[in-house]
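DM between two lab members

TW: hey, do you still have the mRNA 3'-end processing factor entry open?
JB: yeah, one sec
JB: this one, 330 aa:
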Amino acid sequence: MTVQYRDGIEITLSDGTRVVCDADDPPGSSADGPAGDVTVVSHAHGDHFPEGEATAVCSPLTADLASARREIPLHATTDDRIELLPAGHVAGSTAALVTDPDGTRYLYTGDVCTRSRFYLDGFEPPDADVLITETTYGEPEYVFPDHETVAADIVSWLRETDEPVILFGYALGRAQKLQLLAEEAGRERLFTTDAVFRVNDVVASHLDVSFGADRYEAETELGPGDALVLPMTTARIDWIRNLAEETGALKAGFSGWAVDDAFEFRGEFDETFPLSDHCDFAELRDLVDAVDPDRVYTQHGSTDAFAETLTRRGYEATALKRNQTALGDF
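TW: and the structure you got?
JB:
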């Protein structure tokens, strides 16, 4: 067995080397890591990079973002067996194309998006023998409108809404895009928080993009025409509820899950938009076809459903389960 899901995704090469992708406690970060193993970090979302200081094959931008977000260093390195390809998910995100000494090519996508958006180019799938892909939206009901349509709908809503608005998106990823959309819509004042500012500063230092938000302070008074961009995790915190009630602000959530009406109610949003940094179902299916692998492993999200879809379409596909030890455990 050459691919397993343990602490992260492990690819064991023919010479015994383990390539460990997106682990909490990867080789080299503790005394338990065997010498010679390689750590890969696909991007700087908190569930993909190590909890402690580590050295990993990753983009310099991912290393700087991870270091800034947790104030614990992540050091970027390279490995001749691993080619990093822009994954199109968030700033700095990469897929890893791993070439085994025996010539087998493994593609680990991490979180991935094939749509080009704002300052991000969509992922361009290479040929590979083995594909390990995320399946966040790996079921047929999750098909998104094209990006230009979604972005235009958001800008129109922002222009037509007189009330202050509170816009919720992940601090790394959608929060930056929401700032750009609010600026395009001509919002009079734009605010965000320290967590988003830390990301803004790092992204702007690496890419040709800037963000015009001011820091939201306790004494800031939101009024008509204002926009406040907040991390998605704050949407149901009491002070946010109180702020919306006191100012008459409308709360808007942005996620691929917004294609499901339940997303609006779960997040207590007034408006929702399917603005996503992942592939939808159709794009995942097209990604697999473009890679044309001999074997596919699915992980994260609708793993079983998407593996079944691929099997029906003629692929040898397996949903990865954590801590499998033998093929019979699948």
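TW: got it. The longest helix spans residues 147-160. The first strand starts at residue 3 and ends at 6.
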